[in-house]
Every structure is written in C-alpha cells, then in structure tokens.
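Tutorial, part two.
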Amino acid sequence: MKVLVAYESKYGATEGIAERIGERLRTRGLEAEVVRCSDIGDASGFDAYVVGSATYEFRWRKGARTFVKHHADVLAAHPTWLFSSGPLGTETVDKDGNDVLKGAEPKQFATYAELIHPRGTQVFRGAYHHDKIRGGDRIVAWMPGIREILPEGDFREWDVIEGWADSIADSLAAART
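Running the prediction step on this input gives:
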C-alpha cells in the first residue's frame, strides 16, 4: 500500500516529523513517500495520505493549504490524516487550564473536516532555535522580550509521533483485511 506523507515546513521541525512518520510507516510494511507539499504536482497514485504543516498564528503554511485545495477530490476519496506542529514547551495546559495541544489546532482542521473528511488529526509539539530564524521573522525574534517568551529547544515527542504513525498503519492494515 502506497502512502504519501506531504508536509510544509519553514525551519525543518515539521519536515523532521514527516520524515519520522514516513520511516515508521515503512517499518510497518507500507510504501511511504515523504514530499514537501509545494513540490507535488500530481498527488494521485497513492492509497492513503498524511498531510501536515507547521502552524503559525493558527494557520497552516500556504504550501500545505494550496496542496489540500488543489487535491481535495483525491484526498476525500482516500484515507487521509492531518497533522500540525507548532506549540513549544512542555506544558500540557495553559494558564486557564485548557489543553495546550487542542488550543494549538490550526483552523484548517475544522475547514478540512467538511472538505476531505480526514480519519484523524493530530497536533505535535515543535522546535524553535533563536539562531535559526531568518528573513522577516528575525525582526520578531529579536524584539525585546521575545527570547524570554518563546521557549527554545526541540520539544517534539518522538514516541507520540511514532505512536500516531503506528495507529495509521493499524488502520490501513485493518482496511485491507
């Protein structure tokens, strides 16, 4: 069974998540191809899809949004899962007691629920390193106080990511039998 893991990443953290998902699916006997959304011309020819993006200000990156818009019919006709990366730190709840990961869901999860009917969605923690920031983001990253507000480090939980990939493999195996 062929699975496309399509992603859009700005600084590489989401790309790393997509690569790990692809690796895990391959260890489970699936043929997984991991490709940046903006590099995909034709998305047909796969049996299932996993699509993810880094999230900024509760929105997926443009390349991922464009990919879903252009390939909505293909995605809706096949098993599809969506993921997002973004929240930093290790806190599980915010100052108001709300689940941090649930609160970080991109608005695309709700939009795409009606459009492509994903089998599942997942928000993963991301990574942030002050010294990797480039372009226009440098202005924000170097504003007074930002370094103190944004936790620096790699907060990706590889066991959670692998567990989610395993659940996708299990779902696809169950559909084959």
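The beta strands are 2-8, 31-36, 48-56, 59-60, 80-85, 120-124, 127-128, 153-154. In part three we will examine how such features are distributed along the chain.
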